[in-house]
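Quick one, T. Sequence first:
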Amino acid sequence: MKEAGLPDVFIKEREDFIHTKGKQKKQLKCENDSVAGCVSQRACVYCGARVVLNPVTDAVHLVHGPIGCASYTWDIRGSLSSGAELYRFSFSTDLKEEDVIFGGEKKLARAIDELVLKYNPKLIFVYATCIVGVIGDDLEAVCKAAARKHGIKVIPVQSSGFIGNKSAGYRAACDALLRLIGPTSRNETKESKCVNYLGDFNLAGEVWIIGNYLKQMGIKLNVAFTGDSSCETLKTAARASLNIVQCAGSMIYLAEKMDEIYDIPYLNVSFLGLEDTAESLRKIARFFGDLKIIHKTEELIKKEVNAYSGTVQSYREKLKGKKAAIYVGGGFKAISLVKQFSEIGIDVVMIGTQTGRQEEYEIINELVDEGTVILDDANPTELEKFMVEKGAHLLVGGVKERPLAYKLGIAFIDHNHDRKHPLSGFAGAVNFAREVYSTVCSPVWKYIGT
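Structure tokens:
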């Protein structure tokens, strides 16, 4: 029996994953594997691992699997580098039918030998894919032998597709990073007023923006996980006295393990929007408890807010009455986007994530208005239904959601992939408002009857 007030869904098993604020009292179901048959928008395990590790700029990224998996590479995310460019190449063992029958371990070993000979890397990540999980190649053994033979780090990433979903890929990537940092780092001397920045992949140079803020506050950015990072810088991660976590979905596991192993505490932060950026900088300053840092932080916030808040307010007046739908990877980003839309006067009528956690959905439920539809691990049919039903003018999502928005004649903003301008920090808040305005208020919509 369908619960009263629950929107119609097309697969009965999905009912518990969809919630309308004000109509239902029970908690939204989340953190489960996708329902069979619904073709969800959630990415695969390998994709989750590649998102996290690909921005390591001087590493070879070798995909052990069919050639198609290697198409998910630098060009999908557009992470920027201040140094090495090796990460922009994508390498594959290109497994074929014969390899599936007889195994691909020898082919993998040869591929590693060739890559070492040609590029002389300090680090190779070897990604398992679905087919590797089926045929049972021993990545651990091959990588261990290759590391011993060449005297470099060769780290297997256990990201075969049948072990879970995108969140499992995040965890596989974090386990690989922990192996790179290594147990010997326990003895690293901690630097005061020094932070690691977790969960930023330097899209459009966003790590550099936040690093500049920290510098103005009197705090050193030690290493970013993993935007514009390198093999050697990542090894120094245990020196930091604090981890700040931007993308909780991809990095909370790593933050917790580093707290356990290296005694480095962590703070969840968000640098999306004026409000969250200011509050996150204050949170970091308060952690160190240094009056000089706190004073510098307030000066920085005052300067930046004065520079940008007027522009954001001008867009707010132009966007009054518009409605937005959100479907992104993690819950923390979704929360920040709700606040960011509030800053520019836009009502969020539908919101969903691929990997949101229960506590994040509870915060989302508090932030959104009555009648807003909240979804976990949605599929295209559900997204289409609720966007049309709620009259959304705009969808914020990733690369897979773009065709759906355009098919419906709805404006679209890619928050994750294909963009050249930063959306983090105070300047990023203005860029976001400008992009929303130019997209939603474009004259093109009058020609399609929206």
